[in-house]
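During the reporting period, we have paired protein sequences with backbone structure tokens. One record among many follows, to show the layout:
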Amino acid sequence: MASFSYFHISILVFQFLALLATAQFDFFYFVQQWPGSYCDTKRSCCYPTGNPPSDFGIHGLWPNYANGKYPSNCDSDTPFDESQITDLVERMGEEWPSLTCPSSNGVTFWSHEWNKHGTCAESELDQHSYFSAALELKTRSNLLQNLRKSGINPDGGEYPLKRVIAAIRDGIGHTPFIQCNVDSEGNRQLYQVYICVDKNGSDFIDCPVFPSDGACSSNIGFPPL
């Protein structure tokens, strides 16, 4: 009897610790990518309607720790369920597109994002709230418009990195992290923008820590679509 009780107590403790692990994160990285910089690399891209949208697209909303590490794949018991976001699917197809080849309708991409990242934020956001929050953050960040206000356009030219950062900071009130990749000719270019968001997924905040990868040069390209 004692061993039986100990076994069940152990299971309960394990389940509690697993649940606690999903609740322990400090902030989100909200990450948007520029399709032109994704598509002009050697890997190329594919888009369901033939062309990527003429705007930044969402990559993900990622729970992170203040020490720079992050949780992942926190709850296999709540996998992605498209039926939870039926009212968001059309908008997500436009604002959260998959650019990988072969082309897809985005479901595989969204499933990956929820299963790897979203499950680690279940203490704050359920599936619908998670994807809805990302869409709202994209609208509020308005990256392309903020860059254009400062004369930074996706015209294939190069722009000072400091100017790109300042343009976005002026628009959202917080300093972003700019991640660059390399085009097919080896030139550094604006690829992704990281903006930090509070645990509720609602407000932009100062970043506790910036990513360490995707270094940019002092001047970066902004390729056309």
